[in-house]
Amino acid sequence: MTETPAARNYSEQQAGSLTTGSHILLPDGERTAEIRQVELEQDDFGAPALVLASLSGGGTLRIAVGTSVTVVDAVLDGVTQLPLQAIPAGVAGTAGETGPVKEAGLKQPGGEPAGAPAAPAVVVPPLPAVPPAATGPGEEELALIPAPKGTPESVVEAAAEAHPDAEGVLLLADRLAKGVNFKSGSCLKDLSDLAHELFITLKDADGSLAVADLLNVLPYDGNPGRWASVEASLALSSYICRQNGQEARAEVYEKLLRTPENQETDPFKARMAAKVRQRSLNEPNLYDKEIFRSIDNANHDAEREWRLLRLESLLFLRAHGGSETILPGELERRISNELEAVRS
């Protein structure tokens, strides 16, 4: 329901922190309304952008997450549901009471003056718990990642010399031979592709890890495009080490993969980011439609490319700790199936 302002306390807060039960001042600046339900809409980048506040009296307000909203702290009467300060004398009372209403402060026959009606306790629901921040590996853990043998260019050259007949490796090595620039997104992508080519196609786990470790030690710089290549390299390295029984080293890669998750310091934004992240883990894009379409068209090259993207998604899920919708055993089975499919 809506009501007119009376003698109440006002406070300002961002729309993103509104909860069910909050009383807010409506845009006309004269009436208030109680929020019955709050929903959040994300923008195209997955960040919270719009608050949809359903009002108890009907209607929905659309508010930007960062907009300041006036919240009204009012004590309501149990019967009229109006603020006590706004109720005319003789109206407020309790449900089921008969006879004249006793006014506060008047002495009753044979008794003491009646006290003012006790204000009902206001229970404020607690905010959801802030998700635990992902902690990065310590120095001792980082020491489990071996230092590269020589310059980045020499590592790439060694991989090419080990597989002189592999066209995919030679093509990537030629591009990287001009110089490895870790600030270039395309260069990082070539390194990640080279690590995947060595392990997936040529089954060279050691060579793949040597190339991948050039990326794995790079810090998160806030650029999603560049980080995508590092993320894919970390997920691949974690899988290789788990397969080889190097559990401690695999855990280091997995902690590094989750590094961006502890960057947000605002509790509300951290909760929203965790919610969006969990939704993406539960509903990963595994390119089913694209793969089936390629199979129907007998386009084996396209099918392999889509399966490689599916494999990257599955490796990321595994390195991140799994999904609520795909059990660990099922995840391992799918990874094995995709490896077999793209290697055949």
What's the arrangement of secondary structure elements?
Elements (H helix, E strand, L loop, with lengths): L1 E2 L5 E6 L8 E3 L6 E11 L5 E8 L4 E5 L3 E6 L65 H4 L9 H11 L4 H10 L8 H17 L3 H12 L7 H20 L3 H11 L9 H16 L5 H9 L3 H21 L7 H16 L1
Weakly predicted, low-confidence segments: 1-7, 78-108
Straight-line N-to-C gap: 65 Å
Give the radius of gyration: 30 Å
Strand content: 5-15%
Percentage of residues in helical conformation: 40-55%
Largest sheet: 5 strands, antiparallel
The coarse silhouette is elongated
Structural class: alpha+beta
Query: What's the number of helices?
Result: 11
Question: What is the chain-wise order of helices and strands?
Answer: EEEEEEEHHHHHHHHHHH
pLDDT averaged over residues: 81
Number of strands: 7
Concise description?
The protein is 43% helix and 12% strand.
Can you describe what's shown?
The protein is an alpha+beta fold. 43% of the residues lie in helices and 12% in strands. It contains 11 helices and 7 strands. The protein has helices at residues 139-142, 152-162, 167-176, 185-201, 205-216, 224-243, 247-257, 267-282, 288-296, 300-320, 328-343; strands at 2-3, 9-14, 23-25, 32-42, 48-55, 60-64, 68-73. The strands form 2 sheets. Strands 1, 3, 4, 5 and 6 form a 5-stranded antiparallel beta sheet that branches. A two-stranded antiparallel ribbon has the order 2-7. Helix 2 (152-162) packs antiparallel against helix 3 (167-176), helix 2 runs antiparallel to helix 5 (205-216) and helix 6 (224-243) crosses helix 10. The relative contact order is 0.08. Mean pLDDT is 81; it is low at 1-7 and 78-108.
